[in-house]
Write a structure and sequence with these properties.
By secondary structure, the chain is an alpha/beta fold. It contains 5 helices and 6 strands. The longest helix has 10 residues.
Length: 127
């Protein structure tokens, strides 16, 4: 995912949204979450990481207390230069005009839950 993001944007000093912090939807469990290496990689690249998850934020905050967390996906996307969809929460499938608030609408979708749309750079993959 990070290599795909690197193909489209230099994240150094830029806001990058990580959508989905739990290891799977429907839980607040972050053990073995794919978001962990994503956040570590973004931090190593000098990105300003902002995370959002409907229920797992507090558990991830224990591991990464120094990144920003928001209370909604639109708030995480606002001003972001990239977004990585890590957990396939249903609410991410309904995102649409929320991508318009991004500084650079680059979406790397690790679950292929977001519908590709005109106006965003979209890369979809599955793990």
């Amino acid at each position: 995912m990070l290599d795909l993001l690197d193909d489209h944007v230099d994240v150094t000093g830029k806001r990058v949204a990580v959508l989905g912090l739990a290891f799977k939807p429907g839980t607040d469990d972050t053990r073995n979450s794919r978001a962990i290496p994503i956040i570590e990689g973004l931090t190593e690249r000098g990105a300003e990481v902002v995370g959002y998850d409907p229920v797992a934020t507090e558990n991830m905050r224990e591991r990464f207390p120094d990144i920003e967390y928001t209370d909604s996906a639109p708030a995480a996307l606002d001003g972001a230069h990239g977004a990585l969809v890590v957990t396939d929460w249903d609410e991410f499938a309904t995102l649409d005009e929320e991508f318009d608030a991004m500084a650079d609408p680059v979406v790397i979708d690790g679950r292929r839950i977001v519908d590709p749309q005109e106006g965003i750079v979209y890369e979809g993959l599955t793990w």
